[in-house]
Amino acid sequence: MAEHYSSFDRSGRRWLLQRLTAVFLIGTLAFHFFLLHFVNHAAEIEFAGTQARMSEVGYFSLMVLFLVAATFHGVNGVYNALVNMGLEGTRKRVVGGVLAFSGVLLIAQGIRVAFAMAGVI
Amino acid sequence: MSETYNRGTVEDVGRWTEFSAGMWAWIFHKFTGWVLVGYLFTHIAVLSTATASDPTVYNQTLSGLESLLVVRILEVGLLAVAVFHILNGIRLLLVDLGIGLQAQDKSFYASLILTGAIAVASVPTFLAGAF
User: Fold this and answer.
1) Residue B86: exposed, middle, or buried by beta-carbon count in 10 A (0-12, 13-18, 19+)?
2) What DSSP assignment string belongs to B95-113?
3) Burial call B62-80: b when 16+ CB within 10 Å, e when fewer
4) Rounded to an integer, what distance in angstroms lies between the CA atom of residue A83 and that of residue A76?
5) ipTM above 0.90, yes or no
6) Contact state of A6 with B96 under an 8 Å Cβ cutoff
7) Is pLDDT above 60 for B19?
8) Which regions span the lipid bilayer (chain A) (predicted)?
Protein backbone atom coordinates (compact mmCIF):
# COMPACT_ATOMS: atom_id res chain seq x y z
CA MET A 1 0.00 0.00 0.00
CA ALA A 2 1.21 3.52 -0.76
CA GLU A 3 2.92 5.30 2.13
CA HIS A 4 1.31 8.58 1.23
CA TYR A 5 -1.84 9.18 -0.72
CA SER A 6 -3.46 12.46 -1.66
CA SER A 7 -6.03 13.44 -4.25
CA PHE A 8 -4.34 16.88 -4.42
CA ASP A 9 -4.48 18.39 -7.88
CA ARG A 10 -2.15 21.37 -8.29
CA SER A 11 -4.05 22.79 -11.24
CA GLY A 12 -7.47 22.30 -9.67
CA ARG A 13 -9.02 25.43 -8.23
CA ARG A 14 -12.30 23.58 -7.69
CA TRP A 15 -10.39 20.81 -5.86
CA LEU A 16 -9.07 23.34 -3.35
CA LEU A 17 -12.40 25.18 -3.00
CA GLN A 18 -14.22 21.87 -2.39
CA ARG A 19 -11.87 21.17 0.55
CA LEU A 20 -11.89 24.74 1.93
CA THR A 21 -15.71 24.80 1.87
CA ALA A 22 -15.69 21.33 3.49
CA VAL A 23 -13.67 22.65 6.44
CA PHE A 24 -15.97 25.70 6.77
CA LEU A 25 -19.11 23.53 6.49
CA ILE A 26 -17.97 21.10 9.23
CA GLY A 27 -18.38 23.96 11.69
CA THR A 28 -21.34 25.81 10.21
CA LEU A 29 -23.51 22.75 9.48
CA ALA A 30 -22.95 21.41 13.00
CA PHE A 31 -23.69 24.89 14.45
CA HIS A 32 -26.86 25.30 12.32
CA PHE A 33 -28.21 21.90 13.37
CA PHE A 34 -27.30 22.38 17.03
CA LEU A 35 -28.81 25.88 17.28
CA LEU A 36 -32.06 25.15 15.45
CA HIS A 37 -32.79 21.66 16.77
CA PHE A 38 -31.15 21.37 20.17
CA VAL A 39 -30.81 24.91 21.61
CA ASN A 40 -34.04 26.09 19.95
CA HIS A 41 -36.35 23.17 19.14
CA ALA A 42 -37.61 23.32 15.55
CA ALA A 43 -41.22 22.90 16.73
CA GLU A 44 -40.94 26.03 18.88
CA ILE A 45 -39.34 28.31 16.27
CA GLU A 46 -41.41 31.37 15.38
CA PHE A 47 -40.78 34.24 12.98
CA ALA A 48 -39.99 36.69 15.79
CA GLY A 49 -37.06 34.55 16.98
CA THR A 50 -35.81 34.00 13.43
CA GLN A 51 -36.00 37.74 12.75
CA ALA A 52 -34.12 38.53 15.97
CA ARG A 53 -31.30 36.14 15.00
CA MET A 54 -31.18 37.30 11.37
CA SER A 55 -31.12 40.98 12.45
CA GLU A 56 -27.65 40.43 13.93
CA VAL A 57 -25.06 41.24 11.26
CA GLY A 58 -22.67 38.49 12.37
CA TYR A 59 -25.32 35.76 12.32
CA PHE A 60 -26.80 37.03 9.02
CA SER A 61 -23.35 37.08 7.36
CA LEU A 62 -22.55 33.59 8.68
CA MET A 63 -25.82 32.22 7.28
CA VAL A 64 -25.21 33.82 3.86
CA LEU A 65 -21.64 32.43 3.79
CA PHE A 66 -23.05 29.05 4.89
CA LEU A 67 -25.51 29.17 1.97
CA VAL A 68 -22.80 30.09 -0.56
CA ALA A 69 -20.34 27.45 0.74
CA ALA A 70 -22.99 24.71 0.94
CA THR A 71 -24.28 25.48 -2.56
CA PHE A 72 -20.78 25.43 -4.08
CA HIS A 73 -19.81 22.26 -2.19
CA GLY A 74 -23.07 20.50 -3.09
CA VAL A 75 -23.29 21.52 -6.74
CA ASN A 76 -19.57 20.93 -7.36
CA GLY A 77 -19.91 17.57 -5.59
CA VAL A 78 -22.77 16.55 -7.88
CA TYR A 79 -20.74 17.67 -10.93
CA ASN A 80 -17.69 15.67 -9.76
CA ALA A 81 -19.86 12.60 -9.11
CA LEU A 82 -21.34 12.81 -12.63
CA VAL A 83 -17.89 13.30 -14.23
CA ASN A 84 -16.67 10.32 -12.18
CA MET A 85 -19.52 8.28 -13.69
CA GLY A 86 -18.25 9.04 -17.19
CA LEU A 87 -19.90 12.33 -18.17
CA GLU A 88 -17.89 13.98 -20.98
CA GLY A 89 -17.97 16.16 -24.08
CA THR A 90 -21.02 18.33 -24.83
CA ARG A 91 -23.09 16.64 -22.12
CA LYS A 92 -20.42 17.54 -19.56
CA ARG A 93 -20.47 21.19 -20.64
CA VAL A 94 -24.30 21.35 -20.65
CA VAL A 95 -24.63 19.64 -17.25
CA GLY A 96 -21.90 21.90 -15.85
CA GLY A 97 -23.73 24.98 -17.14
CA VAL A 98 -27.11 23.84 -15.79
CA LEU A 99 -25.59 23.04 -12.37
CA ALA A 100 -23.74 26.38 -12.21
CA PHE A 101 -26.94 28.25 -13.15
CA SER A 102 -28.94 26.29 -10.54
CA GLY A 103 -26.34 27.15 -7.92
CA VAL A 104 -26.44 30.87 -8.74
CA LEU A 105 -30.28 30.83 -8.62
CA LEU A 106 -30.27 29.01 -5.28
CA ILE A 107 -27.83 31.52 -3.78
CA ALA A 108 -29.85 34.47 -5.11
CA GLN A 109 -33.13 33.06 -3.78
CA GLY A 110 -31.48 32.08 -0.49
CA ILE A 111 -30.21 35.64 0.01
CA ARG A 112 -33.71 36.93 -0.75
CA VAL A 113 -35.08 34.59 1.96
CA ALA A 114 -32.36 35.79 4.37
CA PHE A 115 -33.41 39.43 3.84
CA ALA A 116 -37.08 38.48 4.28
CA MET A 117 -36.20 36.72 7.55
CA ALA A 118 -34.29 39.79 8.74
CA GLY A 119 -37.40 41.89 7.97
CA VAL A 120 -35.55 44.00 5.40
CA ILE A 121 -37.88 43.07 2.48
CA MET B 1 7.47 0.88 -3.98
CA SER B 2 3.75 0.89 -3.44
CA GLU B 3 1.47 -2.11 -3.65
CA THR B 4 -1.92 -1.80 -5.27
CA TYR B 5 -4.96 -4.00 -4.99
CA ASN B 6 -7.40 -4.48 -7.83
CA ARG B 7 -10.73 -4.58 -6.08
CA GLY B 8 -12.72 -3.88 -9.24
CA THR B 9 -15.00 -0.90 -9.70
CA VAL B 10 -17.27 0.33 -6.96
CA GLU B 11 -19.93 1.10 -9.57
CA ASP B 12 -20.31 -2.66 -10.16
CA VAL B 13 -22.83 -2.88 -7.32
CA GLY B 14 -23.81 -6.48 -8.19
CA ARG B 15 -20.70 -7.66 -6.35
CA TRP B 16 -21.43 -5.61 -3.22
CA THR B 17 -20.69 -8.56 -0.91
CA GLU B 18 -17.01 -8.27 -1.94
CA PHE B 19 -16.80 -4.53 -1.21
CA SER B 20 -14.11 -3.31 1.21
CA ALA B 21 -14.63 -0.71 3.97
CA GLY B 22 -13.25 2.05 1.74
CA MET B 23 -15.71 1.22 -1.03
CA TRP B 24 -18.65 1.37 1.42
CA ALA B 25 -17.31 4.70 2.71
CA TRP B 26 -17.25 5.99 -0.89
CA ILE B 27 -20.84 4.83 -1.50
CA PHE B 28 -22.14 6.25 1.81
CA HIS B 29 -20.36 9.57 1.24
CA LYS B 30 -21.91 9.86 -2.25
CA PHE B 31 -25.38 8.86 -0.97
CA THR B 32 -25.31 11.29 1.98
CA GLY B 33 -23.98 14.02 -0.35
CA TRP B 34 -26.89 13.55 -2.77
CA VAL B 35 -29.37 13.65 0.14
CA LEU B 36 -27.82 16.82 1.59
CA VAL B 37 -27.74 18.75 -1.70
CA GLY B 38 -31.34 17.66 -2.40
CA TYR B 39 -32.33 18.84 1.06
CA LEU B 40 -30.54 22.19 0.56
CA PHE B 41 -32.67 23.00 -2.52
CA THR B 42 -35.85 21.77 -0.75
CA HIS B 43 -35.02 23.76 2.40
CA ILE B 44 -34.66 27.04 0.49
CA ALA B 45 -37.86 26.29 -1.49
CA VAL B 46 -39.88 25.70 1.71
CA LEU B 47 -38.43 28.78 3.41
CA SER B 48 -39.17 30.83 0.27
CA THR B 49 -42.90 30.03 0.40
CA ALA B 50 -42.95 30.40 4.20
CA THR B 51 -41.47 33.92 4.05
CA ALA B 52 -43.40 35.07 0.97
CA SER B 53 -46.12 36.82 2.97
CA ASP B 54 -46.85 37.70 6.61
CA PRO B 55 -45.14 36.04 9.62
CA THR B 56 -48.17 33.89 10.48
CA VAL B 57 -47.55 31.85 7.31
CA TYR B 58 -43.96 31.16 8.50
CA ASN B 59 -45.21 30.10 11.94
CA GLN B 60 -48.00 27.94 10.48
CA THR B 61 -45.63 26.28 7.98
CA LEU B 62 -43.12 25.33 10.70
CA SER B 63 -45.70 24.21 13.27
CA GLY B 64 -47.62 22.32 10.57
CA LEU B 65 -44.52 20.41 9.45
CA GLU B 66 -43.37 19.76 13.02
CA SER B 67 -46.80 18.33 13.94
CA LEU B 68 -46.20 15.42 11.53
CA LEU B 69 -44.47 12.39 13.07
CA VAL B 70 -42.95 11.47 9.70
CA VAL B 71 -41.19 14.86 9.57
CA ARG B 72 -39.71 14.29 13.05
CA ILE B 73 -38.43 10.85 11.95
CA LEU B 74 -37.03 12.31 8.71
CA GLU B 75 -35.22 14.94 10.80
CA VAL B 76 -33.43 12.18 12.74
CA GLY B 77 -32.51 10.67 9.37
CA LEU B 78 -31.25 14.04 8.13
CA LEU B 79 -29.12 14.44 11.26
CA ALA B 80 -27.64 10.95 10.73
CA VAL B 81 -26.88 11.77 7.09
CA ALA B 82 -25.26 15.11 8.02
CA VAL B 83 -23.22 13.64 10.89
CA PHE B 84 -21.91 10.78 8.73
CA HIS B 85 -21.02 13.17 5.88
CA ILE B 86 -19.18 15.44 8.35
CA LEU B 87 -17.28 12.61 10.11
CA ASN B 88 -16.38 10.80 6.89
CA GLY B 89 -15.50 14.18 5.36
CA ILE B 90 -13.01 14.80 8.21
CA ARG B 91 -11.64 11.29 7.52
CA LEU B 92 -11.19 12.17 3.83
CA LEU B 93 -9.54 15.52 4.61
CA LEU B 94 -7.07 13.80 6.96
CA VAL B 95 -6.26 11.08 4.41
CA ASP B 96 -5.70 13.82 1.81
CA LEU B 97 -3.23 15.42 4.23
CA GLY B 98 -1.44 12.08 4.52
CA ILE B 99 -2.80 11.28 7.98
CA GLY B 100 -4.38 7.93 8.86
CA LEU B 101 -4.36 6.12 5.52
CA GLN B 102 -3.27 2.90 7.24
CA ALA B 103 -6.28 3.12 9.56
CA GLN B 104 -8.79 4.35 6.96
CA ASP B 105 -11.00 1.27 7.43
CA LYS B 106 -11.03 1.70 11.22
CA SER B 107 -11.84 5.42 10.91
CA PHE B 108 -14.75 4.51 8.60
CA TYR B 109 -16.14 2.09 11.20
CA ALA B 110 -15.62 4.75 13.89
CA SER B 111 -17.57 7.27 11.74
CA LEU B 112 -20.43 4.78 11.38
CA ILE B 113 -20.57 3.94 15.11
CA LEU B 114 -20.38 7.60 16.16
CA THR B 115 -23.11 8.52 13.62
CA GLY B 116 -25.35 5.78 15.00
CA ALA B 117 -24.71 6.83 18.60
CA ILE B 118 -25.42 10.54 17.90
CA ALA B 119 -28.57 9.71 15.89
CA VAL B 120 -29.93 7.42 18.65
CA ALA B 121 -29.07 9.98 21.36
CA SER B 122 -30.91 12.71 19.39
CA VAL B 123 -34.19 10.74 19.13
CA PRO B 124 -35.71 12.08 22.41
CA THR B 125 -34.95 15.68 21.33
CA PHE B 126 -36.45 15.25 17.86
CA LEU B 127 -39.54 13.36 19.01
CA ALA B 128 -40.31 15.60 22.02
CA GLY B 129 -43.93 16.75 21.78
CA ALA B 130 -44.60 14.75 18.62
CA PHE B 131 -47.17 12.47 20.26
Assistant:
1) buried
2) HHTT-SGGGHHHHHHHHHH
3) beebbeeeebbeebbebbb
4) 10
5) yes
6) yes
7) yes
8) 20-39, 59-82, 94-115
Neighbours of A114 (CB within 10 A): 21
Q: Domains, chain A, ranges and CATH?
A: 13-118 (1.20.1300)
- pLDDT tens, position by position, A20-64: 999 999 999 999 999 999 999 999 999 999 999 999 999 999 999
Alpha carbons A40 and B128: distance in angstroms, whole number: 12
Residue B31 forms contact with A (CB below 8 Å): no
Please give the Cα distance from A104 to A72 (Å, whole number).
9
Which CA distances in Å does B81 have to A84, A91, B33, B62, B118? 22, 30, 8, 21, 11
Burial class (CB in 10 A: 0-12, 13-18, 19+), A54: buried
Contacts of B67 in chain A (CB under 8 A): 43
